[in-house]
Amino acid sequence: MLEHVLWIGGPPGSGKTTIASRIARRHGLRLYSADTKTWQHRDRAIREGNPAAIRWEAMSPSERWERPPDELLAMSIQLARGPMIVDDLRRLPASPLIVAEGSPIAPALVTDRSRAIWLLPTPELQRAYLAERKLEPGPAALYEHAATEVDRQAREHDMPVVVLDGSCSLNEVVEAVEDHFADALGAGPRAATEDERRSLLREANAAIMSQVRAYHARPWAVDDAGVDVRTFACECGDRSCEADVRLAVGALEDGPVLAPGH
Questions:
Q1: Structural domains in the chain, sorted by start
Q2: Is the pTM higher than 0.90?
Q3: What is the pLDDT of residues 184-194, one digit of tens each?
Q4: Were 234 and a residue from 39, 163, 209, 243 both cysteine, which residue would form a disulfide, CB within 3.0 to 4.6 Å?
């Protein structure tokens, strides 16, 4: 039943990863980001003979991004990843609570609506966010098309939603999500010590590192995973720390990720 999971859904460009990370860090919870499992899930889909996954993998990046958005969405295997996400979560410890976030999280996975919320940006806000990321036209078109489908599913299943239009600050959105999860956060187990908090932060950072290395291991990928710069959470373990650190993936193996002065 995964009663120890809090679900945060939404399309790319909704800020759900940042918000889920803030909540996990504030409350000493485990963070599960579906994006970090993308390539593991793709390999599983290929082993299981999923034609969309096989087709995606056979294309070069340039060929792939020339396809229309609806075809790209089909090849993203979002529906097929739902059971894989459930399998991942079942393999994790039931304590502390898990904050699970990601675009492939579908309403059908949720049995308790009080433990789920969908973040739905307006088209204008999503486009502005994607522009900040300087995405190529192909991925940007896919993400905008995915937003329409995610919005439709959330409303069709009458899921709790927060509509994001840019009028609220990040902290205000985090607080709105915390308010929705108040009962679960009040009753659920969380990391009790600083060492446990550090371990959870290292686990989340290691998942990002694994994602990047798995991408660069694809036969069509270029460059070295070790020099790919990503954003990692500071691992100091302080309850009030919300600092992030931009760091090359290879440097993660040198020791704890710490913001200056932490």
A1: 5-190 (3.40.50.300), 193-262 (no CATH)
A2: yes
A3: 999 989 998 99
A4: 243
